[in-house]
Amino acid sequence: MTQADETTAPPPQPPRMAGDGRRDANAATVLRTVLDHGPVARGGVARLSGLSPAAVSRQCTDLSRRGLLRDLPELASGGTVGRPQIPVDLHTGELGGPLAAGVHIGVPASTFGLVDLRGRIVARRTFRHDGIDRRTELPGRVARELGEFLAGRPQGRPLLGVGAMLGGWVDPGAGTVVRHDALGWHHRTLAADLSRALDLPVRLDNHARAIAQSEILFGLPAARRSLVHLFVGNVVDAALGIAGVVHRGPRSGAGDVAHLPVPDSTVPCACGRTGCLEATASDTALAAVAVRRGIIPEPDSMLLWDAAATGDPRADRLLRSRARAVGRAAALLLDVLDPDLVVITEQSSILNSAYLEEIRGAAVDHSHVCDDPERLVSPHAGPGVLPVAAGTVLLNPLFRSPLQG
After folding, report:
1. What global pTM score does this model have?
2. Which of 103, 200, 95, 91 is nearest to 155 (CA)?
3. Around Cβ 242, how many Cβ atoms within 10 Å?
4. Is domain 99-211+386-400 in CATH 3.30.420.40, yes or no?
5. Selection from 53, 47, 43 nearest residue 84 by Cα
6. Which is it for strands 87-90 and 69-71: parallel, antiparallel or unpaired?
7. Which of 53, 55, 79, 100 shows a CA-CA span of 20 to 30 A to 183?
8. For the chain, what percent of residues have pLDDT higher than 90?
9. Bridge partners of 90?
10. What residues does CATH 1.10.10.10 cover in the chain?
11. Residues of the chain with CATH 3.30.420.40
12. Cα 295 to chain center, whole Å?
């Protein structure tokens, strides 16, 4: 609007909270209350949410029409005066309960999943990228394989859309991968490309932010106050959540910790420095060390985890060393941000709690503010973290504005 427009325009109107805005906000409150406490009667929703019984009744009707809630008359309480209290719950039933699709595009493989409204996995599949040109062929192949996976979903369950996530610099608003060096992707319009190929709505985000949001939506209550999430895979990045909101930054570039210094590390990095976190602790770096030491025959981190699980002491020592490096990096984040919770997505510590204890020990030893190792946790979904978080990319906007779209 120009200055001339501003001088002739009528005074701005107040936000429309009496109409659709308030209705959607109330629906979000009801949906979140049922997520946290369901199955729960409408009267219970009113008490827990602070909304009036009439407002709760209206929103439950709207949300049921959209297939998000369902009545459970078989659980109605008896022996009370008046009408029975019929509980409502999220519609996660096998007959008609909607599903969200998720895809995590990693470097060696992609993970596909279907999750219900509580973030529970209904189906999943791994698609290896062996022999595929990552820069030119991979997007099309992922779309085709994902389409075949979705075609086999349970009949009668509507599909809400697709949540997609990957590492690197991702702009969710534009649906664009700004930079993913390992895949050779720069300014790729991935959300639009997948949406055209699948004929479905697609939302895109960075995987560290998506997992952080998954913890806020489905994980421990402390995550809603404040959390830091550290993702350690072939890509290393992080996310910060405060009061239920994951920080993106003005250019959606928040969370780039690949070059965070790891104390005592002398590993050279492509940036020209030594001791950077990704160069020291990524799956790619770890697998390369394991090959040089003769622990595994090829640079595949899954082989290293298998070797440790079957009792190879060399693999165990290498994974413990990586865990301590991750713990030292976590200590730096703890000292800077002092969050209620630090969530560590690192495969060996998800599969074996002994490596999580190594991370915790190193973090407490090196942190100046944290003397509570229980503040460091693995993702609530455990080995299912990737498909659940990818689905959350789609589900989180739904829980915030359930009547939109």
Report:
1. 0.91
2. 95
3. 14
4. yes
5. 43
6. antiparallel
7. 100
8. 86
9. 69
10. 18-90
11. 99-211+386-400, 220-378
12. 32
* pLDDT (average), residues 362-374: 95
Contact 100, 91 (CB under 8 A): no
Instruction: Check whether the bond before 39 is cis (ω within 30° of 0).
Output: yes
Could you give the count of Cα atoms lying within 13 Å of 40 in the half-sphere of its Cβ? 21
Single-letter amino acid code for the residue at 127 = F
In angstroms, the CA 247 to CA 227 distance is 11
CATH superfamily of the 220-378 domain: ATPase, nucleotide binding domain (3.30.420.40)
- Class (C level, CATH) for 18-90: mainly alpha
Q: How far apart are the C-alpha atoms of 354 and 349, rounded to whole Å?
A: 7
Closest listed residue to residue 386, CA positions, set 203, 209, 207: 207
- Exposure class string for 371-400: b at 16+ Cβ within 10 A, else e: eebebbbbbbbeebbbbbbbbbbbbbbbbe
Tell me the pLDDT tens digit for each residue of 240-265: 999 999 999 999 999 999 999 887 88
Cβ contact 218:380 at 8 Å = yes
